[in-house]
Amino acid sequence: MFSPVESRRLYRQVADQIRSMIASGELAVGQRLPAERELAEQLSVSRPTVREALIVLEVEGLVNIRMGSGIYVVRRHAASVAASEGEPVEGPFELLQARAVIECAIAEEAATRARPEDIVLLDEALVRMSGGVNDAGAVIAADRAFHTGIAAIVGNATLIRVTGEMFDMRMSPYFEKLASHFEGPTTWRSALEEHRAIRDAIAAGDAIGAKAAMRAHLTMSQKRFSESFGEEFSGEEERGRDKGPAKATDKT
Amino acid sequence: MFSPVESRRLYRQVADQIRSMIASGELAVGQRLPAERELAEQLSVSRPTVREALIVLEVEGLVNIRMGSGIYVVRRHAASVAASEGEPVEGPFELLQARAVIECAIAEEAATRARPEDIVLLDEALVRMSGGVNDAGAVIAADRAFHTGIAAIVGNATLIRVTGEMFDMRMSPYFEKLASHFEGPTTWRSALEEHRAIRDAIAAGDAIGAKAAMRAHLTMSQKRFSESFGEEFSGEEERGRDKGPAKATDKT
DNA sequence: CTGGTCAAATGGCCTGACCAATTTGTATAG
DNA sequence: CTATACAAATTGGTCAGGCCATTTGACCAG
């Protein structure tokens, strides 16, 4: 909020500058950019830095780099990369709150259209989860499969993707360090019970019940999280640059 | 296709190798990768090459590079990198359906906690939207501000981010092309009316009404979309194939 | 005109070095 | 013993200069 301080990596600043020149039309589509050596000189940076910036733009699909020929503008706007651009790692509580809002709605919707074969898939995930309470990796994978499986019932790829992405965020290096302190057979068993409640509600076509069960599950996750290490981390929350304090206390 | 040679650039080969190690789980999520210098030695390439490969993965959102600390695996599979290849981009209808599910829930939640100053922000977005019906860019920006503004009322950065990312998918080159066929002052005015209904419901603290208004808005968007060009887009689409050199170099 | 060769331009990659941010260990003060 | 402060080690960020491979176009021989 104060001053970005421009501590951003140099190659990113260069990439941003070129990107904006493309967006503004100053560099037209199809046009060839100056050679790497020229760009380095004009921008007063080294050639490796220019190269790194150009690779960013190439991955984003904005330019096309051709050996021995040059660098050409392909299109004017990047296609929603965003995934990594900022420092978007929100706090664990904030994440769980967001999941509560979104996944409750998905569970509600799923309950109204679940078919028997969908329930079978959820059951498979539950079996895998209960069968590997001592293998953290297997349990997490099954947990993920359960949540994305619910989204799959709705039959919408975007919902599946969003659900998966939010789940995968449980491990920024920082998040994972905290999780290792409280994840264990006991907590997994609790989560498993809550999963079963969600599954049953969806199988019964009980939309309101599914929504409530999902909310209970994610609320309990939050509670397990906080009880295990209390405020241990509440002080060092500046870690992920959370803008607003995660007022995670939701009321349901 | 005649030239399979391609002789891929080295840094891409390195990026592919590391990416597949992440996908296979050989490099677990949250884990720290070896230092750049070690990677360079183990892979028998130079450090700049390793750096370029890592920048690719960072732009793709797979790893998180932290100065002085190390490189960490963030997620297992690339998220929505339309630039790389494939058709991970879901269709417009699928996207609008997903937004209906998610944003309805957000609007419902927002209605229960909206404060006067939050409504002011929404109103500002509405004014900007109504004031620029002839400037597509301005209207889209205001439209985006309205939707993310609702998420902001909930006070959760993750919700804001997800809402923004879903909105930004309309910027995919393919989606954009279609939108240009039907977006116009008329459709924008309709959308504006629907926005006002949402705003009013939230301002009144009417959760159910806000949810319904949001659903109506996104349903209508879907309808406007389909009426303007029907199934015209269901067949043709090789837009994503611009891996080949852009033939734009001939004149311009 | 056709075909080939050659050289300039340009991107791809390397070596080696130094700087800046972060982490970690250690010593000192309380 | 705890906790703070400081210093060293680790690691990413940047720079400099160089050589090689590919592309491109001009030039020349046929």
From TrEMBL, chains A, B:
It comes from the Bacteria. Residues 236-252 have a biased composition (Basic and acidic residues). The keyword Transcription applies. PROSITE patterns: HTH_GNTR. Residues 226-252 are annotated as: Disordered. Residues 8-76 form the HTH gntR-type domain. Signal peptide: none annotated. Keywords: DNA-binding, Transcription, Transcription regulation. GO terms for molecular function: DNA binding; DNA-binding transcription factor activity. InterPro entries: GntR_C, TF_FadR/GntR_C, Tscrpt_reg_HTH_GntR, WH-like_DNA-bd_sf, WH_DNA-bd_sf. CDD domains: WHTH_GntR. The keyword Transcription regulation applies. This is GntR family transcriptional regulator. It comes from Rhizobium chutanense.
